Amino acid sequence: MFRETNSRSIVKGITWRVLATTTTVIIVYVFFGRLDLAIAAGILESVLKVALYWAHERGWHKIRWGRERISPFNLWFTGLPSSGKTTIADAVFVELEKLHIPLERIDSKDIRDLIPNIGYSREERNRHLKRVGHLIQTLQNNSISTVASFISPYRESRKALREMVHNNIVVYIKADIETCKKRDTHGNYDKALAGEYPNFTGISDVYEEPKHAEIIIDTDLLSVEEAVKIITNYVKKHYIK
Amino acid sequence: MFRETNSRSIVKGITWRVLATTTTVIIVYVFFGRLDLAIAAGILESVLKVALYWAHERGWHKIRWGRERISPFNLWFTGLPSSGKTTIADAVFVELEKLHIPLERIDSKDIRDLIPNIGYSREERNRHLKRVGHLIQTLQNNSISTVASFISPYRESRKALREMVHNNIVVYIKADIETCKKRDTHGNYDKALAGEYPNFTGISDVYEEPKHAEIIIDTDLLSVEEAVKIITNYVKKHYIK
Questions:
Q1: CA nearest B103 in A: which residue?
Q2: Cα gap B135→B106, rounded to integer Å
Q3: CB of A43 less than 8 A from some CB of B
Q4: Which part of the chain is the APS kinase domain (chains A, B) (predicted)?
Q5: Which of A49, A163, B142, B187 is 20 to 30 Å apart from A213, CA to CA?
Q6: Model ipTM value
Q7: B3 to A41: CB separation less than 8 angstroms, yes or no
Q8: Angle at the Cα of B37 (from B31 to B39), degrees rounded to 5?
Q9: DSSP strand E in B16-95: where?
Q10: Are the CB atoms for A106 and A147 separated by under 8 Å?
Q11: What is the pLDDT of residues B124-174, one digit of tens each?
């Protein structure tokens, strides 16, 4: 939340005064045809009204009516490991921050500082994402929008999340599994193929494609820049007044 | 965050106009001594300037300068089990909400939806509170203040938390262990004394009294209402402009 500083009220008063007194001088001149008196009236008006305007601004600053809470949204990036979720979500976050809306980035990696990842079974993954949903709820209660990127392979957990949060926008980052393997700089796919990871999405565990994604980004066809543009335009069109 | 609605700008314009045009009419009358022309000038001014004022308001609404982020605080209630932390923190939260600052209540019980409590050993408690600290950081990054109540028995975890968050206010809810036992409606103390809980603070585990608490509430001497007053006054004095 923001408060308006005293200097803001004063400078607003000055810009308004230039606009308003010029108008007064013109009106008085039109009515009375005497420029000297019109200007004198203008000067007196300026002095008086700068003070009045300041008091008026500070008074209104205390009134809550007409200040509307911004409605938050949740951009939810889902897709195979190394499909490009984090890269695109990071770039979208940078773009959306330029709009000066309250915004938080949530990535499956960073979230472990906050919520320990208890395991990779279906049940554990679902429980983990429910906790992430609670975090998004807490942020949304305070008008904060979120850019979240999680593999989130199961329909049931994405559905549970959609029911928990407001203005949920599922962005499916679509990539061929061969493309993902090429993009994987950590050798995770190789390790999974070697049997080291028993629940690796795409190899030893299923990825259930979203059926109701608001946005589908086919990374085999679109560049990161193009993807970012599509996603930010969607957000601007639907959620930024 | 809030946005200002169009109606707010319009109504502000009207209240300002009444104030401003009355001044103009008086000035013109003083200069020219003709009430009829003074009023005519006032009417013309009103019509023109209501529109100008509206445009001026909407223009300024787009300007961020002079809008200051509210600096968030963290009220951290610590004390023995059943000392009265939750009761007092709940009442403080209700009082502070009346100030219309962005505020979130965090209690050791409710937090489990978000952060699973992994255990009660010293190491596990410290890790848990560090996660709570991350949550408070995330909220503070978005100007949200917090009212948190956790037994938090160890100095090291309270110290770690103080280093993580801004404007930390430790409120030590002091109560004699006999008083706590009487207040305990769940029979937890009895179970702990019977050896059922191996890490129960005050019985089978230590509570390290805070040495640097900003506020100490001796619940044997103060009523809940008195405690709430002391705490909210502290917050108002230091953190509410």
A1: A142
A2: 10
A3: no
A4: 73-218
A5: B142
A6: 0.75
A7: no
A8: 95
A9: 67-69, 74-78
A10: yes
A11: 889 899 999 999 999 998 889 999 999 999 999 999 999 999 999 999 999
Q: How far apart are CA B59 and CA B52, in angstroms?
A: 11
Q: Within an 8 Å CB–CB cutoff, is residue B53 touching chain A? A: yes
Residues of B with a known catalytic role: 152
Task: Report, as an integer, the average pLDDT of A116-130.
Answer: 85
pLDDT of residue B1: 54
| Domain, as residue range, for B124 | 74-239
Q: Tell me, yes or no, if B163 comes closer than 8 A to chain A by beta carbon.
A: no
A84 and A41 in one domain? no
- A104–B7 CB contact, under 8 Å: no
pLDDT of B42? 81
Residues A43 and A93 occupy one common structural domain: no
| DSSP string across A43-106 | HHHHHHHHHHHHHHHHHHHT--TTEEEPPP-EEEEE-STTSSHHHHHHHHHHHHHTTT--EEEE
pLDDT at B217 over 90: yes
Q: How far apart are CA A165 and CA B51, in angstroms?
A: 40
- Using a CB-CB cut-off of 8 Å, the residues of chain A touching B8 are 65-67
Name the amino acid, one letter, at A1. M
